[in-house]
Description:
This protein is α+β, with helices and mostly antiparallel strands.
Amino acid sequence: FPIVRGGTASAPVRNIPVVLVNAASRIYRWTDGASTLVQVYEDGAPVYTNAGNVADVFGSGSPGAGAFYSSNAQGMIRLGSDPAGTITVDGAGGSGPLVATVLRDLIMTTLALPTGYLDEASVTSTAATAPYTGGWAWTGQESGREAIKPLLAALGARLIASRSGGLRLWPLRALASTASPVASLDPSTAVSMAAVPMGGPLTPPAAFWSVGYARTHSTTTTPKPTVSATERERLAKPYRTAVWSDATNLTRYAQASRPDMVATALLQQADAQSLANSLGALWGVQRSLWQVTLPTASALLREIGDVVTLQWPADGLRTGALGQVVGDSLRAGDPTASLLVLV
C-alpha cells in the first residue's frame, strides 16, 4: 500500500496515486494512516465535491454521485460514483513538515530502526541548517535505501556511521572562512597526503545546479479539457526546478560541468532555491580532495564533518588550507588509517 509522509495543507505532496481496496464501495487508499487530504482529482481535474471527513469510510455509506468522503484517520477516500479517469490526491501524511523530521520518523517508525541507533541531536541541528518543508509518496515496495534517497537529497545530506556505532545525519555545506578547525594535519601528525581526482560533475566547477521540487507523483499528458494550461504543464512533468547559475564559470573553464537535476522531496520553491544556492556555493568553485594517511589512533579521533587544517609540501597546501573530513577508511589491526578531506 502507498505511504505518504510530510507536507502541509498549503504545501502538500502532489498527485499521489491511489490503490483500490474495495471496488464495490469505490474505496481507495492513498497512505497508511494519520493524514490530511487536501484535494481529489480525476485526470488532473477536481471534479468531485468533498462531502466531509469521516472516521470510517467502510461504514459511512455512499457520499452520493459526484462526491467523496475522506478518512484522515485511515488515509482513504470513498467515491460516490464510478470514476471516468485516473484518481489521484494531494495530501500530507504522518510526520512533518520539516524534511529532517520526516526522515527521522521514516527511519525510526516505518523502517523500524531500533531506538538509540540514530543521533537525534544531528537531526535537530540539520533541521536548523536546512529548515525545508518536504514530503514524499512511496509505493510501499521501495528498499530502505531507495526510500530515504529523496529526503537526503532534499537536505544535501548523508547518513553516516558515527564513532559510537550509530547513524548521524550530516549536511555537506561550503565552509565559512571563519570556521574553526578542530585539528591540524601536517608532517608532524600525518604519514602522507595524496590528491584524489574527483572528476565530473564536480571538476571543473559547474556553471549550473538545478534542484527539482514539488514532485508530481503521477504525471499525465492527457488531463481533462477543463485543466488550465499552467496545471497541464505541471502534470506533464515530474518536477519543477530551481536553478543556481554562475555565468563566469562558462568562460572561466573550457567546459564547465553540467550536473543532472537533483531530484528531491522538497515542496516549496524557496527551499529548492536555497538548496541550489548551497550546492553552487559548495561546488561552483574549484575544490580538491585529499587522502590523508594517519596513525589509526589519530584517525579515530576525527569524525566525518570535522573541520581541519591541511598543511603539506604540495600545491594548494603549502601555507595551510581549511578543509572538512568527508570520508574515512579504517581497518581493525592496521597501524594506519586514512581520511578524505575536502578543501
